[in-house]
Recover the amino acids of this structure.
């Protein structure tokens, strides 16, 4: 995974090959397969480039993705965009990410011209401030014994703080909801004023901790050698304007795990309590043996 914000921004700056065809670079990584958030973020960048280059006239409001095959970290990814529809208010794009001639991801994204409308939103749950929360690497070191720098290296492009979970001894106690986790996150630096770039970076970050939330009640963590884990599908809805380089509270809850799969939803709030995005994902959480 990218070892700096600049490297992540380079990954999201796709190379045009032909009309509707783009090439995505790979980071210098120790991972054996491509991080799902990277493919989703790059696919969204490819889709947005065919709607409006600056992402200003029509902005993404939803995406739905299926992860089909593990990505090879040693070769670039090719993103093929289908201009499915351009209506008066909405544009729809379908993206296929390919490696070695085979699809590894399908993503559909919808873009809308800004307009006023009815308004309501959930309130942000109570959480400690990001300044009072340990870094995610420090929290995982306590949980797994692996040194924090090992974890931090893998998401150096992001600043992520552990804000609690519903495990025994955790600070979230909500009867009837056994699998909850919260983190604060933001880009580890300042981003340009490009709405599409902020959406792509949030799509990247949104895949980081969702699977972990589904594991909270089971005394197993990501990285455990007994666990086979992978994102299967991923959906996001962007409700309101936000900046990905400012603190966002990621409130995650897993209503169900069964059949080797964990289902998790997430809500993203600004530090001022404004709900800006929602996420849903099902992932493989298969215990070997």
């Amino acid at each position: 995974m990218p070892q700096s914000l600049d490297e992540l921004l380079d990954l999201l700056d796709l190379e045009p090959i032909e009309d509707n065809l783009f090439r995505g670079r790979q980071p210098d990584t120790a991972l054996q397969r491509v991080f799902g958030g990277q493919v989703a973020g790059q696919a969204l960048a490819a889709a947005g480039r065919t709607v409006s280059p600056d992402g200003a006239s029509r902005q993404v409001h939803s995406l739905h993705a299926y992860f089909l095959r593990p990505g090879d970290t040693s070769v670039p990814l090719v993103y093929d965009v289908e201009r499915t529809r351009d209506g008066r208010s909405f544009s729809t794009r379908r993206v296929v990410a390919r490696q070695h001639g085979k699809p590894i991801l399908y993503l559909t994204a919808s873009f809308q011209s800004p307009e006023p409308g009815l308004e309501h939103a959930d309130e942000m749950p109570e959480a400690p401030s990001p300044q009072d929360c340990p870094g995610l690497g420090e929290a995982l070191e306590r949980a797994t014994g692996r040194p924090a720098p090992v974890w931090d290296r893998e998401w150096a492009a992001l600043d992520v703080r552990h804000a609690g979970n519903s495990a025994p001894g955790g600070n979230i106690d909500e009867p009837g909801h056994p699998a909850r986790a919260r983190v604060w996150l933001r880009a580890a630096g300042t981003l340009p004023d490009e709405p599409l770039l902020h959406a792509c970076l949030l799509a990247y970050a949104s895949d980081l901790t969702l699977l972990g939330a589904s594991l909270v009640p089971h005394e197993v963590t990501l990285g455990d050698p007994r666990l086979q884990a992978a994102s299967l599908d991923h959906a996001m809805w962007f409700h309101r304007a936000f900046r990905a380089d400012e603190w966002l509270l990621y409130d995650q809850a897993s209503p169900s795990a069964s059949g080797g799969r964990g289902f998790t939803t997430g809500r993203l709030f600004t530090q001022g309590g404004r709900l800006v995005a929602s996420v849903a994902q099902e992932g493989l959480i298969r215990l070997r043996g």
